[in-house]
């Protein structure tokens, strides 16, 4: 039996989610246009994807474009959409070469048709890969996601296909944009901000959080490794006591409500 007084070292995180924040501030501090910060941030995505692979992180979710980002100046939104299309065109072949499945979380319908076309193609070309997954949160907002799920379950109840009193967390979970995706073990936000900004509010209920002061364009593999090392030192109790956890040989699985 495990020593109940021994510290627990978490296994490596399976799923890491990142709020990629600070492109604009990175540029402003260098007296550069915001566009330069976004371009450098896009280049950094490839670097972090490789760093995550080196750390054997099997699932990586990147908050690429929030539902609220449509409120930015039209020229900036157009620039971001163009860079998204360029990223997908350039990295699609690399995802196939490295056997990385691409998925999205969010509602892609408002995205420009040119972006949706290349997005659909890369997802189709990589859908059969199973070991590594890259998830781009696009036009994603957790509150919008929850409302959409509730509306769906309400329609199911009105049609008599579900009993409201018998609904479980699993039913709601399967109605989210992330249905079928394990919850993130670790959520990282860059640039020194300490908030989630409508990102995976339900899915991160038991996640560990690391807030890095480093802006996204400078957040490199060493920074990611540091965040993972911090995660490893955390004690994840899932509502139980530390003594209960340490008395078991493995960490508990989340129970279904």
Biggest sheet statistics: 6 strands, parallel
Radius of gyration from the alpha-carbon trace, in angstroms = 19 Å
Beta-strand fraction estimate: 5-15%
Name given to the CATH architecture: 3-Layer(aba) Sandwich
How would you describe the oligomerization state of the chains in this entry? single chain
The coarse overall form would be globular
Class by SSE composition? alpha/beta
Amino-to-carboxy terminus distance: 29 Å
What's the CATH H-level superfamily name?
A: Decaprenyl diphosphate synthase-like
Instruction: Give the low-confidence spans.
Output: 251-257
Total number of strands = 6
Question: Order of helices and strands, N to C?
Answer: EHHEHEHEHHEEHH
Name of the top-level CATH class: Alpha Beta
The tally of helices reads 8
Write down the domain tally. 1
Mean pLDDT: 92
Task: Characterize this entry briefly.
With 257 residues, the chain is α/β, with parallel strands linked by helices. The chain has helices at residues 23-28, 34-54, 74-97, 113-126, 142-158, 169-173, 221-233, 242-246; strands at 15-19, 59-66, 100-105, 132-140, 186-189, 208-211.
């Amino acid at each position: 039996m495990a020593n109940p007084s021994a510290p627990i070292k978490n296994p490596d995180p399976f799923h890491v989610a990142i709020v990629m924040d600070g492109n604009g501030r990175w540029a402003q501090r260098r007296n550069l246009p915001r566009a330069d910060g976004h371009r450098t941030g896009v280049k950094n995505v490839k670097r972090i994807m490789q760093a995550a692979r080196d750390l054997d992180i099997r699932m990586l979710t990147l908050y690429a474009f929030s539902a609220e980002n449509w409120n930015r100046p039209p020229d900036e939104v157009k620039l971001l959409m163009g860079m998204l299309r360029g990223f997908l065109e350039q990295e699609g072949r690399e995802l196939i070469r490295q056997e990385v499945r691409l998925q999205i979380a969010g509602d892609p319908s408002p995205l420009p048709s040119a972006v949706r076309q290349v997005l659909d193609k890369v997802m189709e070309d990589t859908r059969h890969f199973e070991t590594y997954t890259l998830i781009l949160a696009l036009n994603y907002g957790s509150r919008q996601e929850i409302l959409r799920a509730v509306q769906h379950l309400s329609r199911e109840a009105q049609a008599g296909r579900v009993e409201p009193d018998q609904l479980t967390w699993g039913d709601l979970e399967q109605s989210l944009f992330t249905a079928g995706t394990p919850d993130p073990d670790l959520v990282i936000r860059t640039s020194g901000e300490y908030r989630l900004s409508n990102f995976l509010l339900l899915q991160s209920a038991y996640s560990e959080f690391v807030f890095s002061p480093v802006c996204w364009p400078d957040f490199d593999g060493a920074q990611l490794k540091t965040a993972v090392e911090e995660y490893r030192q955390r004690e994840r109790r899932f509502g139980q006591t530390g003594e209960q956890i340490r008395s078991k040989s493995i960490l508990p699985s989340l129970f279904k409500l």
